[in-house]
Amino acid sequence: MKHYSEIITINPDVRFGKPCIRGLRITVFDILGWMASGMTSKEIVADYPELNEEDIQAALAYAADREHKIKIAS
């Protein structure tokens, strides 16, 4: 599996610079929202055939890494 940095792209001209999947207009936030609402990765890929399972895993890995790096202000 590729590292998420090979899949997640950030371009200020695409979705206002939000992290997207391979330059598509589908953001990490979109994927997390769909999963939070109960969709499985298979359902997401079925609804958005331009995505694949590796894209879903990359979005999760990106979110987990970003969460890990957040520092709590005291």
Topology:
Layout: E1 8-9, E2 20-21, H1 28-36, H2 41-47, H3 53-69
Antiparallel strand pairs: 1-2
Helix pairs in contact: 1-3
Give your account of this protein's structure.
There is one protein chain. With 74 residues, the chain is mainly α. The chain has one domain (4-68): Orthogonal Bundle (Arc Repressor Mutant, subunit A), CATH 1.10.10.10. Helices cover 45% and strands 5% of the residues. The protein is built from 3 helices and 2 strands, in the order ββααα. The protein has a two-stranded antiparallel sheet. α1 crosses α3. The chain is globular. The model has no long low-confidence stretch (mean pLDDT 93).
Strand tally is 2
Report on the biggest sheet.
2 strands, antiparallel
The CATH architecture term is: Orthogonal Bundle
Q: Helix coverage percent of residues?
A: 40-55%
Low-confidence stretches: none
Outline type: globular
Q: Please, how many helices?
A: 3
* Percentage of β-strand residues: 5-15%
Helix and strand run: EEHHH
Question: Which strand order do you get reading across the main beta sheet?
Answer: 1-2
Query: What would you report as the Rg, rounded to the nearest angstrom?
Result: 13 Å
Structural class: mainly alpha
How many separate structural domains? 1
CATH class: Mainly Alpha
TL;DR of this structure?
This protein has 74 residues and is mainly alpha-helical. Helices cover 45% and strands 5% of the residues.
Question: Keywords for this structure?
Answer:
single chain, 74 residues, Arc Repressor Mutant, subunit A, 3 helices, 45% helix, 5% strand, globular
